[in-house]
Structures are given as C-alpha cells and as structure tokens.
Write a structure and sequence with these properties.
single chain, 465 residues, mainly alpha, 2 domains, globular
C-alpha cells in the first residue's frame, strides 16, 4: 500500500510542487539564516567578489588560485558568481553576502532536483526527504553553503550532475547529454577535486549504449561529451596562448603523480580509504568509529551493486566516484582536508539510502522510511546549532554598518581601521569600496570602526597611516 501511495504521489504534480517548494524554502532559510550578520569575508571571498563586481569581459579565463600553487582549469566559477552578482547582488547593494545568498539559492534548487531523483529511485518520499535533510543540515556543509568559495560551487554542480543521472534525464536527447556533461565539467572548472564525480558522470552517460552494444548511440554520446569538454576548455586554451603555454595550473598534481610513478612515494590506498570515510563522518558529524562506517559503506555498496547490477549508469554514478576518489587521492602525497570530499557526500549518502530501501521488507517499508525521516528532522536543531559555530565572522555586520556610515559622507577617506580584531586575510576597507566609497591616501580624514558599528574620524596629514 505504501509503495503504491508513494508512486501515486510521485506522479502528482501538485504534491511534487508543494514538497519541492517546502524543501527549497526550508533549506534556503537554514543556509542563509543571519548571513548579513556573520558572513565569512576572508581573502578568497574578497578576491572573488571583487572579480564578480567587474564586467563580463573582465572575468579571468581560468578559475581561482588553489592552495597548491595552481588554479582551476576554467572560468565556470567566475561565470556563475558574476551571474549571481548581476541577478541577486543589486537587492543587497552588491555586498558580498548577496553572493552567499545567490549561491544558497542555487544549492537549494539542486537539493530539490536530488529529492525528486531519490524519490523516484526509492519510490519513497520519506527516504527522499531523509536524504535531503541529512545532506543539507550536515554541520560542515551547512556552515559553508553560503560562503562564496569555489569548492562549494563545485560540489553544488557535482550534486546536480548526480541528480540528473539518477533521473535518467540525459536519455531524452543528445542535447540533454551535452548539458549533463557541461554541468559535470563546470564542476571541475570550479573545483578540481570534483574530477572523480565528473569522470563518473561521463562513464554513466556511456554505460547504457555500451552494455547494449549500441555502437552508433555510444559513438554519438562520446562525441557530444568530448565536444562539450573541448568547448568549455576554450577559454583555458586562449589563456595559455596569451602566456605562451608557460602557465600551468596543474603542477602540484603532476608533481605528485611523478613522485608515485617513480617510486619515491608509496601508493597510499589504505590511508586514502580511511581518510575518505573519516571526511564523510566529519562532514556529517555522525557518531561511530571509522571502522564502523567503513563496514556500513562497504555493505551498502554491496547491496546496491547486487540490486542494481543491471543498471550500469546508476552504479557508475554512485559507486565509481567513491572508488575513484580513494584511488585518486592514494596518488596524492600532500595533505587532505575534509572539504576535498564535499562532492562525494551525495553519492555516499544515496548509496546508503538505496541499500536501506533494498533490504527493507515491503510490509514495514513505509514505517521504517517515516522513522528515518523523523530521526533526521529531530537532529536538525543540534546540527544547525553546531553549524553556527563554524566558518562565521561576527564582525561582518559591524563592518557593514560602519562602512555604510562612512560611505554616506560621500567623501574620500584616507584609511579605515577597526577597533576590534579581524581575521588576518580580511580587509576593513573592502565593504566601503563596494558601497562606492573612494580610498585616497592623500585625503585628510581617516576612520576607525568601533565594535558597536559607530565610527570615529581623525584628521591626519596626507599619506598618514
């Protein structure tokens, strides 16, 4: 009975729309709650939002710099951030937190897409909602979701590509195949660590005609995927032409591979696997030992592999990116951070949800799914509370208030300082510039923003500090 009700509900456009709207609104609210007070405004955010404030033809042809001295291999992140600034920014005086709000809008829209995909695959609205609740309220992810940062945009696009494959959307036409491939490769351009998801998407797009030995369809899809990637890489090629191909963005990766291949560094399969599982549990903030979750993931993967053994596309999009990530980072001898794995969380979580749906007896399926949803909702307040302590900058609201007061004078200012401590890479003058203020080191007046948002002015000799 429950299964038929879920199927009927899935076919009901009004119910789908209502659940989609509720999911979108609730996840968006959680992600942007008090964002105008504590937006994380550090060096990366200042750099990238300043670029987004420029014109379209001033955008870079490559992505942001990485911490390993390279940069991402295409401008998709800046295209998306610029679009957010143009569409959403004016509603928030083009202040940086407007970028976070636009990014959260995109994230919540993708959550709706994934909800419908999991609902369709499991034939259970409760399991679909459970997946989204656990994904959207993971403290680590929730705290970063509205931070203007390219790894977050990369993980959003990777999640969208996974959802499109789960929905079998790509099967409709070659145009859909191209769009799915474009979303996946744009994720890589936004953040290189999503490469494992992107390659798995390409495999998933090709698996159906490959298993059916439909070579004409296989060939057309392969050409479309290759053409899409080449088209998206043209800006990178133009950039390399301007630097005479002397500006490599992947030196850290090639150096690591060289160390492994030549035997100077060992292959790190076990540490990579344990780090992967540890990162997943860290992002989700779930109790239990790493070994326990290794066992759960392996059992879930085995269940899904057996149940969907004839659905090569699904196995490719869920199991392949996880295996590829473990192998890929086994070839990397640098440090690994939890955010490297953000794009893998949807695949891991959907794998566990599908495994649960597989092993549940039909007669108790609805009750177990409802219990899972109730449990996921019950821990939301605690997770949201934890997220509020991560990656926030409570001084942001004071900076905005003080900068607004200074900008209202419509006079050049020599310098702006704060009477309180800011993170080392932040800039007390950036908000003032965004609001249209002008910094002139020869101007006679300087300003100090106090902890309550008030401003003190001092007259100083030109060029004073």
């Amino acid at each position: 009975m429950r299964r038929s009700w879920d199927s009927a509900a899935l076919a009901n456009p009004r119910l789908r729309l209502a659940l989609a709207a509720v999911t979108f609104v609730v996840t968006f609210f959680l992600r942007t709650r008090d964002i105008s007070r504590h937006f994380w405004l550090l060096g990366d955010q200042i750099r990238d939002w300043a670029i987004a404030l420029g014109t379209l033809n001033s955008l870079p042809l490559v992505g942001p710099p990485t911490h390993v001295h390279g940069y991402t291999i295409g401008p998709a992140f800046y295209w998306i951030l610029w679009s957010i600034r143009v569409v959403v920014g004016p509603f928030f005086q083009n202040l940086p937190h407007g970028g976070g709000i636009g990014q959260a809008l995109l994230q919540s829209a993708v959550d709706v897409l994934l909800l419908i995909a999991v609902w369709k695959r499991t034939q259970s609205v409760c399991l679909g909602l459970t997946t989204i609740v656990l994904l959207a309220t993971a403290p680590f992810d929730l705290a970063l979701s509205a931070v203007v940062w390219n790894p977050i945009v990369g993980s959003i696009l990777a999640k969208a590509a996974i959802a499109l494959i789960l929905l079998d959307w790509h099967r409709g036409s070659l145009v859909r195949t191209a769009l799915t491939a474009a979303v996946a490769w744009s994720a890589v351009q936004s953040y290189t660590g999503t490469i494992f998801v992107a390659l798995s998407v390409f495999v998933a797009l090709l698996m159906e005609p490959l298993t059916k030995r439909d070579w004409p369809v296989f060939g057309r899809r392969a050409v479309v995927i290759a053409g899409t990637v080449i088209a998206l890489q043209l800006p990178y090629v133009f950039h390399q032409m301007t630097t005479r191909f002397d500006d490599s963005g992947m030196t850290a990766v090639t150096s690591s591979l060289t160390e492994i291949v030549t035997g100077r560094e060992p292959l790190r399969l076990k540490p990579s696997a344990l780090t992967y599982v540890g990162a997943l549990t860290s992002i989700q903030r779930v109790p239990g030992s790493t070994i326990t979750w290794v066992s759960i993931l392996l059992l879930s993967a085995a269940c899904v592999a057996f149940r969907y053994r004839r659905d090569a596309s699904l196995l490719s999009i869920l199991l392949l990116p996880q295996a590829a990530t473990i192998l890929g980072y086994a070839l990397w001898f640098g440090d690994l951070d939890s955010y490297y794995y953000l794009s893998l969380v949807p695949a891991a979580l959907v794998t566990m949800v599908l495994a649960l749906a597989t092993v549940m007896p039909t007669r108790i399926r609805g009750a177990v799914a409802a219990f899972c949803l109730a449990g996921a909702i019950a821990i939301v307040p605690a997770r949201a509370s934890t997220a509020a302590t991560l990656f926030s900058m409570p001084q942001y609201q004071v900076l905005v208030a003080g900068s607004t007061h200074i900008a209202a004078r419509r006079q050049p200012i020599q310098s702006i300082r704060t009477a309180f401590e800011l993170p080392p890479t932040s800039d007390p003058e950036f908000i003032f510039r965004v609001l249209g203020g002008h910094i002139d080191r020869r101007a006679p007046w300087s300003a100090v923003i106090l902890a309550d948002g008030r401003v003190e002015y001092a007259q100083r000799p030109p060029g004073g500090s």
